[in-house]
Request: fold
Amino acid sequence: MESFTLSGQYVAIEEKKIFPAELSIAGGRIAAIRPLEAAPMRYLLPGFVDAHIHIESSMLVPTEFARVAVTHGTVATVSDPHEIANVCGVAGVTYMIGNAAGSPLKFNFGAPSCVPATSFETAGATIDAAGIDALLQRDDIRYLAEMMNFPGVLNGDEQVMAKIAAAQHYGKPVDGHAPGLRGAEARLYAAAGISTDHECVTLDEALDKIAAGMLILIREGSAARNYQALAPLLHSHPRKVMFCSDDKHPDELLKGHINELVVRAVAEGYPVFDVLYAACVLPVQHYGLDVGLLREGDAADLIVVDNLREFTVLETYIDGCKVAENGRSLIAATPVASINHFSISPLVPQAFALPAPEDNVSGVRCRIIDALDGQLITEASEAVLPVAGGYVMTDSTQDVLKIAVVNRYRNAAPAIGFIRNFGLKRGALASSVAHDSHNIVVVGVDDGSICRAVNTIIAHRGGISLDDGTSSEVMPLPVAGLMTDGDAVTAGRLYEELSRKAGTLGTSLAAPFMTLSFMALPVIPYLKMTDKGLFDVGEFAFTTVLH
Reply:
Protein backbone atom coordinates (compact mmCIF):
# COMPACT_ATOMS: atom_id res chain seq x y z
CA MET A 1 0.00 0.00 0.00
CA GLU A 2 1.27 3.45 -0.85
CA SER A 3 1.99 6.10 1.74
CA PHE A 4 0.48 9.54 1.26
CA THR A 5 -0.85 12.58 3.08
CA LEU A 6 -4.23 14.31 3.18
CA SER A 7 -4.77 17.81 4.45
CA GLY A 8 -7.92 19.68 5.30
CA GLN A 9 -10.13 20.60 8.23
CA TYR A 10 -9.93 17.67 10.66
CA VAL A 11 -13.29 16.85 12.29
CA ALA A 12 -12.77 15.36 15.76
CA ILE A 13 -16.31 14.18 16.45
CA GLU A 14 -16.06 13.00 20.04
CA GLU A 15 -13.92 15.99 21.08
CA LYS A 16 -16.27 18.31 19.17
CA LYS A 17 -13.37 20.14 17.54
CA ILE A 18 -12.43 21.13 14.00
CA PHE A 19 -8.89 22.25 13.12
CA PRO A 20 -6.56 22.32 10.10
CA ALA A 21 -4.44 19.19 9.95
CA GLU A 22 -2.48 16.81 7.80
CA LEU A 23 -3.01 13.05 7.96
CA SER A 24 -0.13 10.73 7.19
CA ILE A 25 -1.42 7.41 5.87
CA ALA A 26 0.80 4.35 5.57
CA GLY A 27 0.04 0.66 5.33
CA GLY A 28 -3.68 1.41 5.18
CA ARG A 29 -3.67 3.12 8.57
CA ILE A 30 -3.42 6.65 9.93
CA ALA A 31 0.20 6.95 10.98
CA ALA A 32 0.03 10.54 12.26
CA ILE A 33 -2.28 13.54 12.63
CA ARG A 34 -0.36 16.84 12.50
CA PRO A 35 -2.10 20.16 13.26
CA LEU A 36 -1.39 22.92 10.74
CA GLU A 37 -1.65 26.67 10.75
CA ALA A 38 -3.86 26.48 7.69
CA ALA A 39 -5.25 23.82 5.36
CA PRO A 40 -7.65 23.61 2.40
CA MET A 41 -11.30 24.26 3.22
CA ARG A 42 -12.41 20.69 2.83
CA TYR A 43 -13.33 18.45 5.74
CA LEU A 44 -11.83 15.12 6.80
CA LEU A 45 -14.11 12.87 8.82
CA PRO A 46 -14.80 9.17 9.45
CA GLY A 47 -16.89 7.38 6.84
CA PHE A 48 -20.59 6.75 7.27
CA VAL A 49 -21.94 3.45 8.61
CA ASP A 50 -25.41 2.03 7.97
CA ALA A 51 -26.22 0.51 11.36
CA HIS A 52 -28.83 -1.95 10.05
CA ILE A 53 -29.47 -2.98 6.47
CA HIS A 54 -30.53 -6.00 4.48
CA ILE A 55 -28.25 -5.76 1.46
CA GLU A 56 -30.60 -8.07 -0.44
CA SER A 57 -33.30 -5.38 -0.38
CA SER A 58 -31.16 -3.21 -2.63
CA MET A 59 -31.68 -6.01 -5.18
CA LEU A 60 -27.90 -5.88 -5.62
CA VAL A 61 -25.26 -8.38 -4.54
CA PRO A 62 -22.81 -6.95 -1.96
CA THR A 63 -20.04 -6.15 -4.44
CA GLU A 64 -22.41 -4.09 -6.59
CA PHE A 65 -24.03 -2.45 -3.56
CA ALA A 66 -20.55 -1.36 -2.45
CA ARG A 67 -19.73 0.25 -5.80
CA VAL A 68 -22.65 2.64 -5.27
CA ALA A 69 -22.53 3.13 -1.49
CA VAL A 70 -18.92 4.35 -1.42
CA THR A 71 -19.82 7.26 -3.69
CA HIS A 72 -22.09 8.49 -0.88
CA GLY A 73 -19.36 8.17 1.76
CA THR A 74 -20.43 4.81 3.20
CA VAL A 75 -17.45 2.75 4.36
CA ALA A 76 -19.24 0.04 6.33
CA THR A 77 -22.58 -1.61 6.98
CA VAL A 78 -24.08 -3.73 9.74
CA SER A 79 -25.79 -6.25 7.48
CA ASP A 80 -28.42 -8.82 8.36
CA PRO A 81 -28.50 -11.57 5.67
CA HIS A 82 -31.92 -12.57 6.93
CA GLU A 83 -33.59 -12.40 3.51
CA ILE A 84 -31.32 -14.81 1.66
CA ALA A 85 -31.12 -17.05 4.73
CA ASN A 86 -34.89 -17.53 4.63
CA VAL A 87 -34.50 -18.69 1.02
CA CYS A 88 -31.23 -20.66 1.08
CA GLY A 89 -30.32 -21.11 4.76
CA VAL A 90 -26.71 -21.05 5.93
CA ALA A 91 -25.60 -21.44 2.30
CA GLY A 92 -27.19 -18.05 1.62
CA VAL A 93 -25.28 -16.42 4.49
CA THR A 94 -22.07 -17.96 3.20
CA TYR A 95 -22.86 -16.67 -0.29
CA MET A 96 -23.21 -13.09 0.97
CA ILE A 97 -19.96 -13.25 2.94
CA GLY A 98 -18.13 -14.75 -0.02
CA ASN A 99 -19.43 -12.19 -2.48
CA ALA A 100 -18.71 -9.30 -0.09
CA ALA A 101 -15.11 -10.47 0.24
CA GLY A 102 -14.58 -9.22 -3.30
CA SER A 103 -15.21 -5.63 -2.22
CA PRO A 104 -13.25 -3.19 -0.01
CA LEU A 105 -16.42 -1.94 1.71
CA LYS A 106 -16.59 -3.33 5.25
CA PHE A 107 -19.71 -5.46 5.36
CA ASN A 108 -20.37 -6.78 8.86
CA PHE A 109 -22.79 -9.67 8.70
CA GLY A 110 -24.88 -11.05 11.54
CA ALA A 111 -26.30 -14.49 12.24
CA PRO A 112 -29.97 -14.26 11.18
CA SER A 113 -31.91 -15.16 14.31
CA CYS A 114 -35.32 -15.90 12.82
CA VAL A 115 -35.16 -18.38 9.95
CA PRO A 116 -38.03 -18.86 9.47
CA ALA A 117 -39.37 -15.68 11.03
CA THR A 118 -42.48 -17.53 12.21
CA SER A 119 -44.23 -20.84 11.77
CA PHE A 120 -47.08 -19.03 10.05
CA GLU A 121 -45.46 -18.99 6.61
CA THR A 122 -43.40 -21.37 4.49
CA ALA A 123 -39.72 -20.50 4.23
CA GLY A 124 -37.01 -22.14 2.20
CA ALA A 125 -34.81 -23.05 5.15
CA THR A 126 -34.46 -23.33 8.91
CA ILE A 127 -31.55 -22.23 11.09
CA ASP A 128 -32.01 -23.57 14.62
CA ALA A 129 -30.12 -22.68 17.80
CA ALA A 130 -27.31 -25.10 16.95
CA GLY A 131 -26.96 -23.50 13.52
CA ILE A 132 -26.86 -20.04 15.09
CA ASP A 133 -24.19 -21.18 17.53
CA ALA A 134 -22.06 -22.46 14.65
CA LEU A 135 -22.42 -19.16 12.78
CA LEU A 136 -21.57 -17.07 15.83
CA GLN A 137 -18.31 -18.97 16.24
CA ARG A 138 -17.14 -17.45 12.95
CA ASP A 139 -15.02 -14.31 13.06
CA ASP A 140 -16.89 -12.95 10.03
CA ILE A 141 -20.22 -13.06 11.90
CA ARG A 142 -20.25 -9.99 14.12
CA TYR A 143 -23.59 -10.12 15.97
CA LEU A 144 -26.94 -11.88 16.40
CA ALA A 145 -29.24 -10.18 13.91
CA GLU A 146 -32.65 -8.78 14.75
CA MET A 147 -34.61 -10.98 17.15
CA MET A 148 -37.97 -10.61 15.45
CA ASN A 149 -39.67 -13.23 17.58
CA PHE A 150 -40.28 -10.88 20.49
CA PRO A 151 -43.17 -13.02 21.81
CA GLY A 152 -40.64 -15.85 22.03
CA VAL A 153 -38.35 -13.61 24.07
CA LEU A 154 -41.15 -12.51 26.39
CA ASN A 155 -42.33 -16.10 26.88
CA GLY A 156 -38.86 -17.57 27.31
CA ASP A 157 -39.01 -19.82 24.24
CA GLU A 158 -36.23 -22.40 24.53
CA GLN A 159 -34.82 -21.99 21.00
CA VAL A 160 -35.02 -18.20 21.13
CA MET A 161 -33.26 -17.97 24.48
CA ALA A 162 -30.59 -20.43 23.33
CA LYS A 163 -29.77 -18.19 20.38
CA ILE A 164 -29.45 -15.13 22.62
CA ALA A 165 -27.34 -17.10 25.08
CA ALA A 166 -25.00 -18.16 22.27
CA ALA A 167 -24.42 -14.53 21.26
CA GLN A 168 -23.70 -13.60 24.86
CA HIS A 169 -21.32 -16.53 25.19
CA TYR A 170 -19.28 -15.31 22.22
CA GLY A 171 -19.46 -11.69 23.35
CA LYS A 172 -21.47 -10.50 20.36
CA PRO A 173 -24.32 -7.94 20.45
CA VAL A 174 -27.95 -8.89 19.95
CA ASP A 175 -30.11 -6.73 17.69
CA GLY A 176 -33.79 -6.20 18.39
CA HIS A 177 -37.02 -5.94 16.44
CA ALA A 178 -40.06 -5.19 18.57
CA PRO A 179 -42.60 -2.89 16.89
CA GLY A 180 -44.93 -1.28 19.38
CA LEU A 181 -43.47 -2.96 22.46
CA ARG A 182 -43.79 -0.64 25.48
CA GLY A 183 -43.54 -0.51 29.24
CA ALA A 184 -42.89 -3.66 31.22
CA GLU A 185 -42.73 -5.78 28.07
CA ALA A 186 -40.05 -3.52 26.55
CA ARG A 187 -38.05 -3.77 29.77
CA LEU A 188 -38.36 -7.55 29.80
CA TYR A 189 -37.29 -7.72 26.14
CA ALA A 190 -34.23 -5.53 26.77
CA ALA A 191 -33.34 -7.43 29.94
CA ALA A 192 -33.04 -10.62 27.88
CA GLY A 193 -29.97 -9.07 26.27
CA ILE A 194 -31.48 -7.15 23.34
CA SER A 195 -29.40 -4.03 22.71
CA THR A 196 -31.10 -2.14 19.86
CA ASP A 197 -34.40 -1.51 18.12
CA HIS A 198 -35.02 -0.09 14.64
CA GLU A 199 -38.83 -0.50 14.57
CA CYS A 200 -39.95 2.54 16.58
CA VAL A 201 -42.53 4.66 14.77
CA THR A 202 -43.26 7.19 17.54
CA LEU A 203 -41.02 9.25 19.80
CA ASP A 204 -42.74 7.96 22.93
CA GLU A 205 -42.04 4.36 21.92
CA ALA A 206 -38.37 5.19 21.33
CA LEU A 207 -38.07 6.97 24.69
CA ASP A 208 -39.65 3.96 26.38
CA LYS A 209 -37.06 1.64 24.85
CA ILE A 210 -34.16 3.96 25.68
CA ALA A 211 -35.38 3.94 29.28
CA ALA A 212 -35.31 0.13 29.09
CA GLY A 213 -31.63 0.31 28.12
CA MET A 214 -31.79 -0.02 24.34
CA LEU A 215 -30.14 2.03 21.59
CA ILE A 216 -32.48 3.36 18.90
CA LEU A 217 -31.78 3.18 15.20
CA ILE A 218 -33.44 6.01 13.29
CA ARG A 219 -34.64 4.30 10.13
CA GLU A 220 -35.24 5.98 6.80
CA GLY A 221 -35.51 3.40 4.03
CA SER A 222 -37.49 2.88 0.87
CA ALA A 223 -40.63 1.70 2.66
CA ALA A 224 -40.38 2.59 6.35
CA ARG A 225 -39.55 6.21 7.03
CA ASN A 226 -39.33 7.07 10.72
CA TYR A 227 -36.79 9.93 10.72
CA GLN A 228 -39.43 12.64 11.13
CA ALA A 229 -40.83 11.07 14.30
CA LEU A 230 -37.50 10.11 15.87
CA ALA A 231 -35.12 12.93 14.92
CA PRO A 232 -35.75 14.81 18.23
CA LEU A 233 -33.69 12.06 19.90
CA LEU A 234 -30.65 13.78 18.40
CA HIS A 235 -31.34 16.60 20.87
CA SER A 236 -32.56 14.65 23.88
CA HIS A 237 -30.42 11.49 23.65
CA PRO A 238 -27.59 12.18 21.18
CA ARG A 239 -25.48 9.25 22.42
CA LYS A 240 -28.30 6.71 22.11
CA VAL A 241 -29.10 6.84 18.40
CA MET A 242 -27.71 5.59 15.09
CA PHE A 243 -28.89 5.90 11.50
CA CYS A 244 -30.01 3.00 9.34
CA SER A 245 -31.90 2.34 6.14
CA ASP A 246 -33.05 -1.25 6.84
CA ASP A 247 -34.23 -1.66 3.23
CA LYS A 248 -32.97 0.48 0.36
CA HIS A 249 -34.10 -0.14 -3.19
CA PRO A 250 -31.64 0.39 -6.07
CA ASP A 251 -33.14 3.57 -7.51
CA GLU A 252 -32.94 5.30 -4.14
CA LEU A 253 -29.47 3.95 -3.36
CA LEU A 254 -28.21 5.58 -6.55
CA LYS A 255 -29.40 8.93 -5.16
CA GLY A 256 -28.00 8.65 -1.65
CA HIS A 257 -27.50 6.66 1.53
CA ILE A 258 -26.68 7.62 5.14
CA ASN A 259 -25.31 10.93 3.82
CA GLU A 260 -28.88 12.01 3.09
CA LEU A 261 -29.86 11.68 6.75
CA VAL A 262 -26.77 13.61 7.82
CA VAL A 263 -27.59 16.49 5.46
CA ARG A 264 -31.22 16.52 6.53
CA ALA A 265 -30.47 16.49 10.26
CA VAL A 266 -27.89 19.27 10.07
CA ALA A 267 -30.23 21.38 7.92
CA GLU A 268 -32.90 21.00 10.60
CA GLY A 269 -30.57 22.43 13.23
CA TYR A 270 -29.34 19.33 15.03
CA PRO A 271 -25.73 19.77 16.23
CA VAL A 272 -23.32 18.55 13.59
CA PHE A 273 -21.15 16.62 16.04
CA ASP A 274 -24.16 14.74 17.42
CA VAL A 275 -25.36 13.93 13.91
CA LEU A 276 -21.93 12.63 12.92
CA TYR A 277 -21.69 10.62 16.13
CA ALA A 278 -24.87 8.79 15.09
CA ALA A 279 -23.72 8.36 11.49
CA CYS A 280 -20.07 7.46 12.01
CA VAL A 281 -19.07 6.65 15.58
CA LEU A 282 -21.72 4.83 17.63
CA PRO A 283 -22.21 1.92 15.18
CA VAL A 284 -18.45 1.23 15.27
CA GLN A 285 -18.36 1.37 19.04
CA HIS A 286 -21.52 -0.62 19.71
CA TYR A 287 -20.80 -3.47 17.30
CA GLY A 288 -17.04 -3.45 17.80
CA LEU A 289 -16.41 -2.98 14.09
CA ASP A 290 -12.96 -2.99 12.51
CA VAL A 291 -13.64 0.46 11.10
CA GLY A 292 -11.41 3.47 11.64
CA LEU A 293 -12.61 6.56 13.48
CA LEU A 294 -9.94 8.96 12.23
CA ARG A 295 -7.54 8.41 15.13
CA GLU A 296 -3.82 7.66 15.00
CA GLY A 297 -3.35 3.92 14.46
CA ASP A 298 -6.87 3.44 13.08
CA ALA A 299 -7.62 1.97 9.69
CA ALA A 300 -7.75 4.82 7.18
CA ASP A 301 -11.51 4.62 6.60
CA LEU A 302 -12.50 8.21 5.94
CA ILE A 303 -14.21 10.65 3.67
CA VAL A 304 -13.39 14.12 2.37
CA VAL A 305 -16.40 16.43 2.04
CA ASP A 306 -16.74 19.95 0.68
CA ASN A 307 -18.48 21.43 3.72
CA LEU A 308 -20.54 20.50 6.78
CA ARG A 309 -23.88 21.50 5.24
CA GLU A 310 -24.26 19.65 1.93
CA PHE A 311 -21.58 17.05 2.78
CA THR A 312 -20.80 16.49 -0.88
CA VAL A 313 -18.41 13.54 -0.86
CA LEU A 314 -15.23 14.42 -2.74
CA GLU A 315 -13.27 11.29 -1.84
CA THR A 316 -13.85 8.04 0.04
CA TYR A 317 -11.03 5.91 1.44
CA ILE A 318 -11.19 2.41 2.91
CA ASP A 319 -8.03 0.94 4.45
CA GLY A 320 -6.11 3.78 2.84
CA CYS A 321 -7.31 3.01 -0.69
CA LYS A 322 -9.32 5.61 -2.56
CA VAL A 323 -12.58 3.90 -3.58
CA ALA A 324 -14.63 6.86 -4.81
CA GLU A 325 -13.95 10.33 -6.15
CA ASN A 326 -16.40 13.11 -7.06
CA GLY A 327 -19.38 10.78 -7.26
CA ARG A 328 -17.54 8.14 -9.31
CA SER A 329 -16.86 4.69 -7.92
CA LEU A 330 -13.31 3.43 -8.31
CA ILE A 331 -14.28 -0.15 -7.46
CA ALA A 332 -14.26 -2.43 -10.50
CA ALA A 333 -17.28 -4.58 -11.31
CA THR A 334 -16.86 -8.32 -10.74
CA PRO A 335 -18.70 -11.35 -12.17
CA VAL A 336 -21.67 -12.53 -10.09
CA ALA A 337 -22.24 -16.18 -9.24
CA SER A 338 -25.79 -17.27 -8.42
CA ILE A 339 -27.68 -19.23 -5.80
CA ASN A 340 -31.43 -19.91 -5.71
CA HIS A 341 -34.31 -21.97 -4.34
CA PHE A 342 -37.34 -21.85 -6.63
CA SER A 343 -39.40 -24.96 -7.34
CA ILE A 344 -42.95 -24.40 -8.60
CA SER A 345 -44.96 -24.80 -11.79
CA PRO A 346 -47.01 -22.13 -13.60
CA LEU A 347 -50.55 -21.48 -12.35
CA VAL A 348 -53.92 -20.88 -14.05
CA PRO A 349 -56.22 -17.90 -13.37
CA GLN A 350 -58.79 -20.14 -11.65
CA ALA A 351 -56.22 -20.78 -8.90
CA PHE A 352 -56.79 -17.21 -7.72
CA ALA A 353 -60.60 -17.36 -7.60
CA LEU A 354 -62.16 -17.14 -4.13
CA PRO A 355 -65.54 -18.97 -3.84
CA ALA A 356 -68.36 -17.06 -2.18
CA PRO A 357 -70.46 -18.72 0.51
CA GLU A 358 -73.10 -20.95 -1.06
CA ASP A 359 -76.29 -19.17 -2.24
CA ASN A 360 -74.75 -15.72 -1.65
CA VAL A 361 -75.29 -13.67 -4.80
CA SER A 362 -75.49 -10.11 -3.42
CA GLY A 363 -72.33 -9.38 -1.46
CA VAL A 364 -69.93 -10.79 1.08
CA ARG A 365 -68.49 -9.00 4.10
CA CYS A 366 -64.69 -9.49 4.10
CA ARG A 367 -61.75 -8.55 6.28
CA ILE A 368 -59.47 -6.14 4.44
CA ILE A 369 -55.76 -5.38 4.84
CA ASP A 370 -55.25 -1.61 4.75
CA ALA A 371 -51.77 -0.83 3.38
CA LEU A 372 -50.15 2.40 4.64
CA ASP A 373 -47.86 4.44 2.43
CA GLY A 374 -44.35 4.66 3.90
CA GLN A 375 -45.00 2.14 6.67
CA LEU A 376 -44.44 -1.58 7.21
CA ILE A 377 -47.43 -1.84 9.51
CA THR A 378 -50.94 -2.18 8.12
CA GLU A 379 -54.41 -1.51 9.49
CA ALA A 380 -57.52 -3.65 9.24
CA SER A 381 -61.01 -2.86 8.02
CA GLU A 382 -64.05 -4.53 6.47
CA ALA A 383 -65.89 -4.17 3.18
CA VAL A 384 -68.86 -5.78 1.46
CA LEU A 385 -67.57 -7.13 -1.84
CA PRO A 386 -69.62 -8.13 -4.89
CA VAL A 387 -70.18 -11.73 -6.00
CA ALA A 388 -70.16 -12.88 -9.63
CA GLY A 389 -70.42 -16.44 -10.90
CA GLY A 390 -70.15 -17.76 -7.36
CA TYR A 391 -66.87 -15.97 -6.62
CA VAL A 392 -65.98 -12.95 -4.46
CA MET A 393 -64.74 -10.09 -6.66
CA THR A 394 -62.54 -7.05 -6.21
CA ASP A 395 -64.16 -3.60 -6.08
CA SER A 396 -62.12 -0.68 -7.42
CA THR A 397 -64.84 1.79 -6.33
CA GLN A 398 -63.88 0.90 -2.74
CA ASP A 399 -60.19 0.58 -3.72
CA VAL A 400 -60.30 -3.08 -2.65
CA LEU A 401 -58.07 -5.39 -4.68
CA LYS A 402 -57.14 -9.04 -4.40
CA ILE A 403 -53.91 -10.06 -2.65
CA ALA A 404 -52.47 -13.56 -2.95
CA VAL A 405 -49.32 -15.29 -1.73
CA VAL A 406 -47.93 -18.24 -3.68
CA ASN A 407 -45.55 -20.73 -2.07
CA ARG A 408 -42.39 -20.65 -4.21
CA TYR A 409 -40.74 -23.71 -2.64
CA ARG A 410 -43.34 -26.32 -3.60
CA ASN A 411 -46.59 -26.47 -5.57
CA ALA A 412 -49.52 -25.44 -3.37
CA ALA A 413 -52.78 -23.53 -3.67
CA PRO A 414 -52.33 -19.75 -3.28
CA ALA A 415 -53.61 -18.01 -0.16
CA ILE A 416 -56.11 -15.33 -1.17
CA GLY A 417 -57.42 -12.20 0.52
CA PHE A 418 -58.20 -8.53 -0.10
CA ILE A 419 -56.29 -5.29 0.34
CA ARG A 420 -57.00 -1.55 0.21
CA ASN A 421 -54.93 1.53 -0.73
CA PHE A 422 -52.93 0.12 -3.64
CA GLY A 423 -55.20 2.07 -5.97
CA LEU A 424 -54.79 -0.04 -9.12
CA LYS A 425 -57.53 0.42 -11.71
CA ARG A 426 -56.25 -2.41 -13.90
CA GLY A 427 -53.52 -5.03 -13.95
CA ALA A 428 -51.40 -6.44 -11.15
CA LEU A 429 -48.06 -6.10 -9.32
CA ALA A 430 -46.10 -9.14 -8.12
CA SER A 431 -42.80 -9.82 -6.40
CA SER A 432 -40.66 -12.71 -5.16
CA VAL A 433 -39.24 -10.24 -2.65
CA ALA A 434 -41.85 -10.91 0.03
CA HIS A 435 -40.60 -10.57 3.57
CA ASP A 436 -39.63 -12.69 5.24
CA SER A 437 -39.99 -16.06 3.57
CA HIS A 438 -39.92 -14.59 0.06
CA ASN A 439 -42.79 -16.45 -1.48
CA ILE A 440 -44.51 -14.66 -4.37
CA VAL A 441 -46.87 -11.86 -3.29
CA VAL A 442 -49.25 -10.29 -5.79
CA VAL A 443 -51.89 -7.55 -5.72
CA GLY A 444 -54.24 -7.12 -8.65
CA VAL A 445 -57.60 -6.17 -10.09
CA ASP A 446 -58.47 -9.43 -11.86
CA ASP A 447 -57.39 -13.07 -11.80
CA GLY A 448 -56.00 -13.04 -15.34
CA SER A 449 -53.61 -10.17 -14.60
CA ILE A 450 -52.67 -11.68 -11.26
CA CYS A 451 -51.89 -15.03 -12.84
CA ARG A 452 -49.79 -13.54 -15.66
CA ALA A 453 -47.75 -11.45 -13.21
CA VAL A 454 -47.07 -14.51 -11.03
CA ASN A 455 -46.22 -16.80 -13.94
CA THR A 456 -43.77 -14.24 -15.29
CA ILE A 457 -41.88 -14.40 -12.00
CA ILE A 458 -42.00 -18.20 -12.00
CA ALA A 459 -40.56 -18.28 -15.53
CA HIS A 460 -37.59 -16.16 -14.41
CA ARG A 461 -37.21 -17.95 -11.04
CA GLY A 462 -37.56 -14.63 -9.26
CA GLY A 463 -38.19 -10.97 -9.92
CA ILE A 464 -40.69 -8.14 -9.69
CA SER A 465 -43.34 -7.95 -12.37
CA LEU A 466 -46.09 -5.69 -13.59
CA ASP A 467 -49.09 -6.69 -15.68
CA ASP A 468 -51.02 -3.92 -17.40
CA GLY A 469 -54.14 -6.01 -17.95
CA THR A 470 -52.96 -7.58 -21.21
CA SER A 471 -49.27 -8.47 -20.79
CA SER A 472 -46.52 -8.64 -18.16
CA GLU A 473 -42.98 -7.33 -17.90
CA VAL A 474 -40.37 -8.23 -15.32
CA MET A 475 -37.16 -7.19 -13.62
CA PRO A 476 -35.44 -10.58 -13.18
CA LEU A 477 -33.83 -11.35 -9.80
CA PRO A 478 -31.96 -14.61 -10.44
CA VAL A 479 -29.87 -14.53 -7.25
CA ALA A 480 -32.15 -16.21 -4.68
CA GLY A 481 -35.13 -14.49 -6.29
CA LEU A 482 -33.95 -11.39 -4.40
CA MET A 483 -31.03 -9.83 -6.29
CA THR A 484 -29.99 -9.06 -9.82
CA ASP A 485 -26.75 -10.35 -11.30
CA GLY A 486 -26.37 -7.05 -13.14
CA ASP A 487 -25.16 -3.56 -12.30
CA ALA A 488 -26.78 -0.98 -10.06
CA VAL A 489 -27.53 1.60 -12.75
CA THR A 490 -29.44 -0.90 -14.87
CA ALA A 491 -31.25 -2.27 -11.82
CA GLY A 492 -32.18 1.21 -10.67
CA ARG A 493 -33.48 2.15 -14.11
CA LEU A 494 -35.59 -1.03 -14.44
CA TYR A 495 -36.97 -0.69 -10.94
CA GLU A 496 -37.79 2.98 -11.41
CA GLU A 497 -39.48 2.24 -14.75
CA LEU A 498 -41.67 -0.49 -13.26
CA SER A 499 -42.57 1.80 -10.36
CA ARG A 500 -43.48 4.58 -12.82
CA LYS A 501 -45.65 2.20 -14.82
CA ALA A 502 -47.36 1.09 -11.61
CA GLY A 503 -48.42 4.71 -11.24
CA THR A 504 -50.07 4.60 -14.67
CA LEU A 505 -52.16 1.68 -13.43
CA GLY A 506 -53.52 3.89 -10.66
CA THR A 507 -51.35 3.46 -7.57
CA SER A 508 -50.25 6.56 -5.68
CA LEU A 509 -47.97 4.67 -3.28
CA ALA A 510 -44.49 6.22 -3.18
CA ALA A 511 -42.80 2.79 -3.38
CA PRO A 512 -45.47 0.28 -4.48
CA PHE A 513 -43.15 -2.71 -4.87
CA MET A 514 -41.47 -2.09 -1.52
CA THR A 515 -44.86 -1.75 0.17
CA LEU A 516 -46.00 -4.93 -1.58
CA SER A 517 -42.97 -6.82 -0.30
CA PHE A 518 -44.03 -6.28 3.33
CA MET A 519 -47.65 -7.33 2.97
CA ALA A 520 -46.69 -10.95 3.73
CA LEU A 521 -44.67 -10.19 6.89
CA PRO A 522 -46.48 -11.70 9.90
CA VAL A 523 -44.26 -10.18 12.59
CA ILE A 524 -45.32 -6.56 11.99
CA PRO A 525 -48.90 -5.52 12.85
CA TYR A 526 -51.68 -5.73 12.11
CA LEU A 527 -53.15 -7.79 9.29
CA LYS A 528 -50.94 -9.64 6.77
CA MET A 529 -51.28 -12.38 4.14
CA THR A 530 -48.90 -15.35 4.16
CA ASP A 531 -48.88 -18.43 1.92
CA LYS A 532 -50.87 -20.17 4.68
CA GLY A 533 -53.65 -17.57 4.95
CA LEU A 534 -54.74 -14.24 6.43
CA PHE A 535 -52.83 -13.54 9.65
CA ASP A 536 -53.82 -11.29 12.56
CA VAL A 537 -50.51 -10.16 14.11
CA GLY A 538 -52.23 -8.66 17.15
CA GLU A 539 -53.80 -12.02 18.01
CA PHE A 540 -50.78 -13.89 16.58
CA ALA A 541 -53.20 -16.27 14.86
CA PHE A 542 -54.80 -16.89 11.49
CA THR A 543 -58.17 -15.35 10.81
CA THR A 544 -60.81 -15.71 8.10
CA VAL A 545 -61.12 -13.53 5.00
CA LEU A 546 -64.88 -13.93 4.75
CA HIS A 547 -66.44 -12.34 7.80
